[in-house]
Fold each of these.
Amino acid sequence: MEEALVDWSRAQFALTAIYHWLFVPLTLGLSFLIAIMETFYYKTGNEEWKKITKFWMLLFGINFAIGVATGIILEFEFGTNWSNYSWFVGDIFGAPLAVEGIMAFFLESTFIAVMLFGWNKVSKKFHLVSTWLVALGANLSALWILVANAWMQNPVGMRFNPDTARNEMQNFWDVLLSPTAVDKFLHTISSGFVIGSLFVVGISSWYLLKKRHIQFARKSILLGAVFGLLSSFFIVLTGDSSGNDVAETQPMKLAAMEGLYKGQEGAGLVAIGIVNNKKEVDNDEESYHFKIEIPKMLSYLAERDPDAFVAGVEDLVKGNKKYGIEPTKEKIRKGKIAIQALKNYKEDKKAGNDEAAYTHLEKFENYYDYMGYGYFNDPKETVPNVPLTFYSFHLMVILGFYFILLFALVLWFSWKDQIAEKRFILKLGLWSIPLGYIASQLGWIVAEVGRQPWTIQDILPTKVSTSHLSVSNVQVTFWLFAALFTILLIAEISIIVRQIKIGPK
Amino acid sequence: MFENLSHLALQQYWWVIISLLGSILVFLMFVQGGQTLIRTIGKDSTERNMLINSIGRKWDLAFTTLVTFGGAFFASFPLFYATSFGGAYWVWMLILFSFIIQAVSYEFRRKPGNFLGQKTYDTFLFINGLLGTILIGAAVSTFFTGSEFSVDKIRLTAESANAITRWENGWHGLDAAANVQSLLLGLSVFFLARVMGSLYFISTIDDKNIFKNARKQVGINAIFFLAFFLVFLGMLFTAKGFAVDPESKKVFMEQGKYFHNLLEMPIVMVIFLLGVIGVLTAIYITWFRKSKKGLWFGGFGTVMTVFSLFLVAGFNHTPFYPSTFDLQSSLTIQNSSSSHYTLTAMSYVSLIVPFVIAYIWYAWTSMNKKNIDKEEIEGTDHAY
């Protein structure tokens, strides 16, 4: 019963987040692209650039509306479906959400009205500033929500308060500027830039293939390719430092990403591979059916040392004395002591036995670091879904490198003024639009599935985070969201396709 | 600066901010009210498009205010966020669904290939106007009527069923829709939003027909609003209310508690009266003087009235989210708030709010310099 509630709550969160993330990256990337386009118009006074700006702005507006529609639920879903989470870490987690609203959403929503409707109502300069402010607002909102998410991966700057039974913030700057937050923000917005660029390149490719709006498409595709190429280099850089951060803060996630069961020194990075689904911590199955490795690369990427030790799933579950890894079983035992001590403390405090309460408190504080583990019974529960994390990670990386190649080719031939004749590359550009979305969603699967079974890494298990609801309530809302969002997605794609067919005016 | 304030002072400061956000949200729901009047006021498609485009440029402001209201409540009073959203699940879900369908409707309604057809999106806007206002009103009324929930933090240490807050009936918030007082406030908000929507049309559209019909709607909806709201206030001020003993922190019932709050907090009383006068003035000058300036009085009046009601709900030793299931589980601004540190940090963030209001004001006036007329709607290339 409770397990079903957790599963359905997770399914609903995943569903709504995945839908939301179909629209957000385009907003993040396209907002900057149209701001750049409008800047060209402002500087040159060339009407062609105005036409270009207005066309992409039209598509932006359609996509933005549905991004907003799917976003509101995420703001409230922490409360509706994860109320225990909301109390347990709300003192830290709530702040970025509020800041996001105050600092970013108002900026976006105020100036998008000027951007879309203000062409003849405000000065050219004010209009341009508004467009840039929309881009800034969109990316600022990404900053705050990603700070919040990064904190779930690597909780810092807080302390548990046994009297309020929750974690409380100790240092705002630690939360905001944690390396995990910085990496996550940069990596994620650059994925949005890549998607924005793929969108512009892909649609421009279609016009060139159809020999329509040639001037418009050539200007757009060139801009898209430049922005895309820069962004995809940046995504590799930030991806590398994210990987390094995961190695340090979430070794289990790293092991799952690589399908690495047995840790080793000088570990290789799997370039391509098939993991063995039957492999578990306590059997002797092979970890992979097949793999091609880049020797020592994983050790280098994780620890910046080609000979360093990288822990595998088995080391993390069973422990590894040589490298000072504590067995999970031991962590669970200590965690249960912490939970019991907290209970005793609160009961004695309530009954007015201050002295006894103090003893329990001392014990609790000694064991608090393990409290989250105390909710598990079997060490195996702490292993995420390895195949899903592994494939998501590898496919994402392969796609990331493919985008560099694509943008480079498009840029090269645009530069040589030959792009209109290169039909194969144009087709590749068109069909690469969905690949950008796939890569970005895979990235979130790595981040979120790889963190399981925790909502807050090592602090709060997912199963302790839900609201007290009967599972049928969540099932009903799950299907309502699934139906509604699917219908709206169909409508959005249909409108965008129609507008593309109509073309710039 | 803020770090030297006591925890209680910060809690009060944040309750004021939440109250302001809530009251601005109710004012901005003129968008929702307007959405329910499109077919009533607009007699042909051009008129309807003028109406939609008038409120359509403000819809995301109302929407954003709702989202920020949620985020700010989460950051400042997380126990409320956990208890109410996780408990009154269905009320909030219905509110959210009604806003989801709103958010796409303006942009999609007249776009070719929109899959569902213009009528569906216009119906979405109507549903949002109807459900959004009534349910938000009903949800806020539980600040006074209470709900059936319990809070017990020791559950965190249990083997299973760890949720520290529990809704203690299966209705998950729909119980509010069956409560007379909640319905009264819900309907008051609905009709007030329609009054305000009509006032907004009057102030932003240059069209004789629309002015005539919108003015008529101000009159009709004002009567309903005043009737429902007066009965609500009557019940509120005479009924038993929830009170906290300042010494023992125990919650108990007190006859006429909310009226006492007004009497014991004269400033709140003044705000309340100013608010009522503002709304009445708006109705009066629009109806009797055919003025186009009603929006400003109405907006001021709405913000002040709702603001004062929030202050009555949370100040003067009053639990703002009372539990009828277990009085002692009731939430006060003290027992549900964030830590001193977080409230301090958030208070610094709140310093940018005047700046936010300033740029919203600037953009608003730049965009509304010229009123909407037929030519604009028929001639423009980007209209909803």
Amino acid sequence: MFNYYLKLGWLSIRTNPWLSLLMVAAIGTGIGACMTILTVNHAMSSNPIPQKSEVLFHVQLDSWEAGEPGPDGYNPPDQMTYRDAIALQEEAPAFRSVANNRSGLVLEPEGGDENPYTVDIRNTWADFFPMFDLPFLYGSGWDESADENREAVVVLSRELNDRVFGGENSVGRTVRMSGINFRVVGVIDEWLPVPKYYDVTNGAFNLPEEAFIPFTFAIEQDLPRNGNTNCWKPVDGEGRDAFLNSECAWIQFWAELRNEEEEAAYMSWLNAYVEEQKVLGRFPRPLNNRLNDVMEWMEDRQVVEDDAQVMLGLSFLFLVVCLLNTIGLLLAKFMRKTGDISVRRALGARRSDLFLQHMIEAGLIGLGGGVLGLGLTWLGLRGIEVLFGDFVEHLVHLDWQMMLTAIALAIVSALVAGLYPTWRAMQIMPASQLKTQ
Amino acid sequence: MLSMQNISMVYRTDTVETHALREFSLEVGEGEFVAVTGPSGSGKTTFLNIAGLLEKFTAGKYVLDGKDVSSLSDADTSKVRNEKIGFVFQGFNLIPDLNVFDNVDVPLRYRGFNGAERRRRIERVLDMVGLASRPKHLPSQLSGGQQQRVAIARALAGEPRFLLADEPTGNLDSSMAMSIMELIRSINEEGTTIIMVTHDPTLADMAGRNVHIRDGRVSDMSSDMQLADVANG
Amino acid sequence: MQFGPIWRALMRNKTGAVLIALQMAVTMAIMVNAISIIQTRAESMSRPSGVNEVDTFYLSSIGFNDNFNEQVAVMEDLAALRAMPGVVNAVQTNSVPLSGGGWSMSLATEAGSDVDTTGTAIYFVDEHGIETYDLKLVAGENFAATDMTWRTPEDSTWPGTALITIELAKALFGDDNWQEAVGQTIYIEETQPMTVKGIVERMQAAWNGWDGVERTTLVPQNTAYGGSRYIIRAEPGQRDTLMPQVEEMLAASNRDRLIRGLNTMEETRERSYQGDSSMIKLLLFTIGLLLLVTALGIVGLASFSVSRRTKQIGTRRALGASKADIARYFLSENLLISGVGVVLGAGLTIGLNIWMVDAFDLDSMNALLIPMAMAVLLVVGQLAVLGPARRAASVPPAVATRTI
């Protein structure tokens, strides 16, 4: 029977091509608008590391000034001071933890044919690579001994390795950056966490850095810091050591805690640490330390911007308009077939037969709308790329999941829109005469 | 075959009550060909709608093929219509989007026959009405007489016990009308019970029995019987 | 044309009309709220930065080896830049308005750590800063060459003078007393005094979303932190020819540094407001599409209604209605439906606005938008129904006597 109704639906669509096209266009436009925005939001709110997002925690200590709003109001600052980061890194009971910050160095190509260029750097620790599951193309991350010994080692991104070494296995070779020779220990494969959860402070949708070097080495060499820095107290004195001892927060801190016991133990360690520091005259605010796992942290940072949410709301209202439109047109279409319907009833069609027949016709129109909507979504995403530029380009693409969502949303919408007109069609009485007016 | 006892049908609106049928009674036997006549407004169409289970009536009892159909659910009346009753309408009532084959197919689909069975039945009835060569034509490509033949084929495809015809020749010219009437008679001769509503006495004469409706009641049965006898003779 | 009979006819067959009215209402709610967002964004974008955006560009010079002596390089670079034909003036600075990256500090009118402070953006410039940025000095005087000091990693003492914007002066000294700020002392990093030497009319900070975007301080210092930014103002019309020349000249003059980040102020503004301007375009597109969908829906339903009533129309024509009467019937019918729709829409619009203001911290809409949107939708409705109405008008009276 399903095939029969499909055939009837198709015949009916062909009989009123313009009306049908109008409905397909209405649903397609609504789906296109919704899916375009939904795809962007989906990318923005996606879990960048689903396999581990619940065991990775962003750590916040409230070291800010009493009574004054900080970079994040009365919440703890989102970054950490050097003193605290080192204390946590070395002493806190985490399975793994990494203090890290953003930097930039000037790379001097060998041979001197090419001009020097700047490279985005992340200063970090050996645990960074296993903790955030970085995929390696060649070699691996550095050993903990490199952290301890402050070695000049580097892990390159695939793109930078392509640029410097033409994509060859460069493990063991040397890259010269800002006058220092770094030994390559590893090259990572394509790695594009969206959002860039491990440092949303410096742009949740920026690309990952091009090279990774030991944090300890960067500190020892006093290499530049490129990231956001917030201080609530003037730096007491001049030079590197004064800055490192200051209350300036500039370090992202993450810990991997494998279960609730580890989390609780870590939290109580943090609290004890802060109480200790309070005795020393630091941490003037009340105890307010935070552990947020990846998705909690994305939520806390409102990584999905208000604009995106406003657009999502408006686009769903848009879909509502399109559906109201479709209800009206479907009703017109079904009422135009009153005669046929009453003949079918006379020939023995039950109400349930009419229900199926008309819902399937609505579904068929929904399918058409879905296909059109997919096309429009594709166009819409190109449009968004043109409008919003770089970041969307890397992040937003139409995957299978979203395509199926589009088709399903279209069909469900059409079925919902079809309910009332179908109900009306079911009320048509069987008749012995076709009434034309 | 068909037994109506004291059927009443009252249409109510806010202001008026119309009695379309008043305590209407009729018995039709197996294999009969009954013509129902009457002036317009007499209740002919209401009778037809009730006999065909197209409309519910206000009071009375209706037994069709040994089964009381007075208060069946909508789905059950649909089933009875589908299995036991064939309709032939004045306006043919073919579905314009469907070709001849698919039009005849409609009741068979609701019957739930498989494809082979449907094909067999459709080909048989189309052959019977002389349209076996045109299964792919659309109704708009056929003459009125041909359209009515398709409608008859559609009514017969389910092999109903009972055929209801409403002015089957009303939209046809006289030569076509005669050939349709011949067809209906031959169907009756093969054993199908037929009730035909018409205002045309010439056509009514071709039936085995005449029933005259006036003001919602059967009237003057005896003279009708006489006329029927003449026609049969 | 009387609305009474049309209304009564509508009431007997209201589903289609209700659907159109609802569609109009939701359309209006979306439209007005979208326009309200657009207005807010456009207003924020239209705030002047206070600097000459048309002729100005900037770039960075980054030393990358030990041979690079930044203090010498900065002085040589500035002298060379100012000597170039086509250059009005140039200055070393740390930041550019609207660029997103800058330096902010707290200022107070008294020394100490327990005093009220005001946040300000800091620009390091020299005595050429005012001319290069094309700022308007409204009180006091510009820096002199003798005010200048060097800021280095080893010495971050603040100099003794500063220029501030009117907005900052108001924030520090009160709305009515800002002119008296000249000659007053302000404190930075709790204890270091600076004398306000002059007041500039306006200069925006680097962050366009900051509520203190016009609270800016100019500080007479050159900086030596390894990377220097130069901002250059060209003679009108010379900017684009000058940019590659400047880049080439600087790159050639000193091989121990690299030149990067060559940008115009115009690009900077564009990038700064990219989110806003994209949002505006997106919303405008949405509104357009929405009106189109609504209009097409009206066309579809009106066409259906006309074809359903062909016989009735023919009868009316036979009874003496003129073509114009028939067309007017359908136009009036649409006007009634749309009228109900926009009234409903006004309520829905206000509801949606209240929710959006609440959920997303938006500004409340301008109430004038509601009558304007009502008018627009009524016109769109009339335009949409025009085609079907004309088709109705062309139904011949003879249809009345046709039986089918």
Amino acid sequence: MKTSPRRLLAIGVVAATAVALVACSAGGGDSTGDGGPEAVTFWGSWSGDQVAQLEAQADAFNESQDEYEVTYVAQELVEEKLLTGLASGDVPDIVLWDRYNTPIYVPKNALAPLDEYIEADAVDLGQFYDQALSELVIDGVTYGIPLLVDNRSLFFNTAALDEAGVEPPTTWDELKSVAEATTVRDGGTLTRAGFQLNDPGLFNMWLAQAGGQMYSNDEQTTAFNSPEGLEVLDFWQSLLDAGVYELGFGEGVDAFAEGNVALKLDGPWALSSLDTAGTEFGIVQPPAGPNGDKGAGMGGFGLIIPQGAKNADGAWEFIKWWTTQPENGVAFGQISGWIPANIEAANDPYFTDNPRYAAFIETLEYAKVRSRIPGASDVEGKALIPQLERFLSGEINAEEALAEAQSLGDQILADNR
Amino acid sequence: MSATVAALPALPASPAKKAAQRRRIIGSGFWYIAVILVSISTVLPLVWTLSTSFKTQSEALSGALTLIPLDPTLENYVALFADGTFARYLVNSFIIAIGGTITNVFFGSLAGYALAKLRFPGRGSVFATFLASMMVPAIVTMIPTFLVLRYFPLAGGNDLFGQGGVGMINSYAAVLVPFAAGAFAVFFMKQFFESLPDEIGDAARIDGAGEFRIFLNIYFPLSAAGAAVLAVLTFQAGWNSFLWPLIALNNPDMYTVQVGLAAFINEYQTAYGPLMAGTIIASLPVLLVFIVAQKYIVQNFTGSAVK
Amino acid sequence: MTTLTRLNEVVRGPEMAKQQPPKWWRFGPDGGAVSATRRQQAVSGWIFLAVPVLLFVLFVLIPVGIAIVVSFTDYAVIGDFEWVGLANYTRLFQDPIFWIALRNTAYYTALFVPLGVVVALGTALLLNRRSGAVRVFRTLFYIPVISSTVATASIWFWLLNPQYGLFNVVLGWFGISGPAWLYDSQWAMIAIVMMSVWAGFGANMLIFLAALQGVPSELVEAARLEGASSWGVFWHVTLPAISRTMFLVVTLLLIAAFQVFDQAYVLTKGGPGNSTLTLVYYIYDRGFGRLEMGYASALSFILFLIILVFSLINARITNRRDFS
């Protein structure tokens, strides 16, 4: 009688531990179909409406063959999630990868080299825009295949410009005057912004337009704290002073699609939601700077296979299907508005005959990818952009912003050498 | 009280009394204004969220401060549950919150009882250590706890040395086990048991009852009120927890409702309607539990703090 | 005579109680039936404590130890790692982002703690009266506490939208053009403070309410009779009487303030302009964003020390006080 409650207790403790252990195996299991197509897990940071676009593309692949089945999973901050996935042993098979991040994650052994696959299937890497490809090659090893290219060009709301009787701008001065002409205020409140100056991350393209450069030629220090850099910020300030934009205007919604923004710099991904909204718009190249220099940034995505992916073969098949068969790249462009990185696909009549893509394709001629100097993305992300955000909030002035960004940026470059 | 004054026969109210009365009424008036203003500030955001969750996208963005939607719609809720992931998040959260509640109430009561009622060497230092552990900021232990779970021997494919597999990461165990019997639960129940008389247990002991018997049949039922409050608090804490599930759970299938909800915010284009709908759904269980148990919680807070 | 000896007499009768206790009862301090039950209690005690103690060792003690050790390495979970001695700590002090994070956290604390105390105490004073209505309002005031930080954040994300949010629309009625809140590097942290105070004051209000019950009413009346104004009564009678609780609340708020994370992560991801990059956010970013776990552990320890200092200061101040 004395022992049985105690035995009960001991049993209870054992039972509870058993439950915990069972829960651990029940929660983490993943399914691999036996007999059916092999699962290929596809991660990316695209969310919201874009999820459907990727799912449609995955479905097209799944229907085209029976061996593999690709499923897309949206992951916020997918690069960081990949690292935690590596730490916890749960990596996807293929990732929609922002090419710009490659130099950070390759040293962490996050990406699997693809050279063996490329050689085995005799893939000609020349079929891709070489700027795009270069972002994925570190020390001669290829870590991904370029998938999509983009740049930011100037969108304009046709109705707004017609209303004001102005033509789409081609230079900074014209940009300012068009923005002023198309800004609408109701009493004191801004109801239509002439130009949506909400992305300080585009500073590098403005800097190129001003004739400046981000880094010194020897790649040892930053070079954006220069007369050209100040010219950019002074221009931004003049736009703010002219009242064509207010901080926070149109955030969290698609203000351009709603007709509340007359001009904005954006990429091909915006096309599909504009079509849904039925807005009348046009696209021209980004404006040229005061000295006539043109500048644009090329960005975009690639497809990579993480280290330790369970189904690397399936992932590679999907990569080949999407990137080396031009018709599939074009198909995705039709769904999403994105331009494929495969040159042949990008020059398909669907794009070249379409007035909306004309400006993008023209800009692609001179668009440059961002620097691959070690630490460059931290320089932009931790040093430059925060200071520019403070500048746009009115917290600090242009000189202070660039000076702080420079000192922090130089330190980051030094730490990364 | 003014009623008593009015009931006094004959004597007319003196000017001083009248003035005092007026002051009281004005004071009362100001008091009501103040508490109503505060109440509006605490309740209005939630009401507005509820209202927005039933509005169409265009009405929500129209800038109108309508609390009753002009054109109420369930489309936000439908969109939320359309692909089944949000439902999955709810299930995960329930499992974790309820599991945590059961383990904490049971083990916390057991341990709290031991510290309160049983005499044995070392109980003082055990209690002191538990108390001290409550002061360690969570972030200090999070990274190493992640590593402990990752390299736990014989779990999730690990060998005896904890290598090779994934340990307990990315499973319900990762969220349940570390917090299954927290120091707070032990501390809380100890306080309750201490207020119960020793004699009953001693008498039962004389009669030859075993310790677990004494706990289960005598003291635990007596602590039902305390256990209930602990259950409610633990459920709320489990349901609302965010940082640890964010760290320990990587597979979207395992996400809790808080982690899932956080992912809706800060998108390039936030769909406010479904976000508000998701917020309401994510808040419903704790709200319901609170309404049912609020008397006990609020009482308990004021009660124990007085000591 | 202990209860047990008395019970012994009652149960077994005075005659039998005087007899020598049976052999299986050893001698205790009063010769009563002690030791066997003592052993039984000791064993049961440790069994009952087994699970919490085990979990404590596994998930508090060992992790703290690991944290200390890892902070002296460059551990990154994947790949090789090595002992780096104090390198993480020296890097920390030279890391401008660390100082930004520290400054942001201090700024948050400096705003959050006083505001939190004032609002909690103010509402407690408001509700410190006998009235049926008080219970209703007490519940209403407490409601924000039960929402999760994420739910609160999403509600405030909507409230603070620069164009459609409640705040700026109402400000617009008064002709004020509200700031861009979460998109403005000068207002983002303030927005987060407001949100945190709103979400948390209910709990501290209850603590203050309980303390206010303990203010001696004779003193209040005496002060009133001497002609003290309401403010005078508050300052000279009430406040000193609740000083111990005041320090308790201040410490709780301080400890919470230094660990602010959820709001910064969910709403602003540390921006804009790094203005909401708090210490815990930075630790999370380094540890789980870049897998620099060694560095992140070093950062956690510095945070721990900061919190410890404040807790010790508080403990000394409260201990110095004379309380009955």
Amino acid sequence: MNLAKVLSALAAGVLFGAGLALAGMTNPHKVLNFLDVTRHWDPSLALVMGAAIPVSALTFWLARRRGRPLFGPRFWLPTSRALERPLWIGSALFGIGWGLGGYCPGPAVASLTQPGPGLLGFLAAMGAGLLLSGRAAKLVAHQA
Amino acid sequence: MPTEFTPIAALVGGLLIGAAVLVLFHTLGRIAGISGMISGAFRKATPGAERAWRFAFLGGLLLGPVMANQLSGQSLIQASPASLPVLVFAGLAVGLGTGMANGCTSGHGVCGVSRLSPRSVVATGVFMAFGFLTASIGRHLVGG
């Protein structure tokens, strides 16, 4: 186990969690008020992505100018460009779940220090879903 | 429950999320995608050293909101208004969906979109559309 790696990941996790909380994403009311345009629409979350995406773009631009990360042998980037069926169906399912509960995976995990039955039920089911997702992806990929 | 439009907090939160992406990619060479991080942390095949940094990140993800609570003097973590059965269904959909699509709001929505990955642009468009539709229309039909 490499201490530098673990500490870097811990720091990144803290930044990510603090960012989610400050942004209001650990408050499902706020998430649902963004996704539900029919009632008390709250556009805040658009600004969260609007701020995160440029910094992320800068991250990958800067990485192109160096051969490898500080504590690892290489950069890992997804290379697949295939727009297959599990990508579409999976994203649709995710959107439905997100719009119902107001939780996506990050904020759900980040809320675990204040667990209630709803959050625990959500996370247990999410874990089961992740576990079954490989099989589900194969199933829909093979249908004609 | 209505929530206030909080543009400054949203922008600061988004910048912190972006900073987390930057730190993780430039130290470990890894994408800060939460659904993938969870799968990787719990998958049996993941070697110990690879598991350690993932758990460190997830630990930080829990710690971050606690620190943000302290600094802001607010309770930033709130429970979802959805009922337990709806949240269990939502969790299953989110787990299945993000697993099938290989990413969620962070991996596709922030990292992938910022790299203009075609898969991430499709995934983000689809989950946003279904998120809006579900929260604006579907949720009211199930009484959420």
